[in-house]
Amino acid sequence: MANVYTALATPNIAFVKYWGKRDGKLNLPNNSSISMTLSEEKLNTTTSVAFSAKLTEDVMFINGERQDIASPAAAEKSKFIQDILSLMKERAGMREHALVVSQNSFPTGSGIASSASGAAALSFLLANALKLDMQQKEISVIARRISGSACRSMYGGLVKWQRGELDDGSDSYAFQIADKDHWPELMDIVAIVDPGKKKVSSSEGHALTMKTSELYEARPRTAERHASAIEDAIKRRDFNEMAYNIMKDSNNMHATMLDTWPPIMYLTDVSREIIYSVHELNTAAGENIAAYTFDAGSNAHIITTEKHEKDVMDMLKGMEAVRNIISARQGDGPRMLGDGDALITPEFLRLKGLEI
Ligand code: DP6
Questions:
Q1: Nearest to 152 by CA among 23, 276, 325, 9
Q2: Atom of ligand 1 nearest to the CA of 27
Q3: R_g of the chain, CA atoms, integer Å
Q4: Domain containing residue 31
Q5: Closest ligand 1 atom to the C-alpha of 19?
Q6: Residue 148 C-alpha to ligand 1 middle, in angstroms?
Q7: Is 33 a pocket residue for ligand 1 (Cβ < 6 Å)?
């Protein structure tokens, strides 16, 4: 059996959102964004790869299901994955086909960015397995091409993805603003209200909002302002100021979504109930002790500090529609795992009728 390499990456939650691309093929954003990489206990993607002359094409499984990456009729995301795979193999002079097996610990397409951790795990894994001498920054550019927000999962702690100016995207990469020890008290409490797949994929949403929303015109400069304020607040560990900008940015992005035609509405009545409750909590405390933020889904991410974890938990526990609560802290970014964690095993190969 061929050598198997395995890596793990985690999702990130955006404090300033990426919504709208100036180049849809390279995933170049209209504005910079900032995020917190989540810790791995509950939310992670593990990905294994092996290269073998016994394979007749590149083969990929996500959550046990074979993906159609090699055929010309493959979905756009799958084509990006195939392009990246081909590009990195070529760079390493690897002629054998790859078997990639990826598994998320959480539901795909539910507003918890499985595409970010998946693309980050794959890019990091390929760079290491193929022994490519690449800087983290360069790997983040590769991950970005599969899914924009994935470039931010290439680092632990608090991360910025700078917009960049160049048309080839080489200056649109992520870097770490602060490692997790800078502000270790930060937490993301994820309230799962809908574990289902989202109705409009983020890739479709980015394009439709840019095309049809009149409000979007103001979005890039508003987001840049939020990004500067948050970067500054992170440096000073000013939670009140950071929380204000996190909430404003989420609301601003969702306003452009509602202004899209036909409208995109990821937020539901439960999401709105959570928004109101966080405002009540903050009003009662006399300052912002928690901030809600929503990606392309109805699940709420509530950013808070250890000190106020219980207040947020008590608030969520009173809500019937909240089906599951996951607490995460800041993670370390992607890492290689040992053979014991490999997803490509003799048992897996037997089950799928494959030989490597
Ligand atoms: C709302 O990174 O999923 O989560 O580049 O098309 O894969 P693609 O989009 P994606 O968009 C994420 C949008 C968001 C905000 C964010 O994470 O910044």
A1: 9
A2: 5
A3: 20
A4: 4-352
A5: 13
A6: 6
A7: yes
**Tens-digit pLDDT profile for the chain (356 aa)?**
999 999 999 999 999 999 999 999 999 999 999 999 999 998 999 999 999 999 999 999 999 999 988 888 888 888 889 989 999 999 999 999 999 999 999 765 455 667 899 999 999 999 999 999 999 999 999 999 999 999 999 999 999 999 999 999 999 999 999 999 999 999 999 999 876 667 888 889 999 999 999 999 999 999 999 999 999 999 999 999 999 999 999 999 999 999 999 999 999 999 999 999 999 999 999 999 999 999 999 999 999 999 999 999 999 998 999 988 999 999 999 999 999 999 999 999 999 999 99
* 167 Cα to the center of ligand 1, angstroms: 20
Q: Is the CB of 147 under 6 A from ligand 1?
A: yes
104 lines ligand 1 (CB under 6 A): no
Quote the ligand 1 centre to 44 CA distance (angstroms). 17
Query: What total number of domains does the chain contain?
Result: 1
Query: In ligand 1, which atom is closest to the CA atom of 149?
Result: 2
Residues 137, 282: Cα–Cα separation, whole Å: 37
List the CATH number of the domain containing 221.
Answer: 3.30.230.10
| The token pair that represents 126 in the structure block | 């390929």
- HSE value, Cβ hemisphere, 13 Å, CA-based, for 250: 27
The first and second tokens of residue 54, run together, are 């016994």
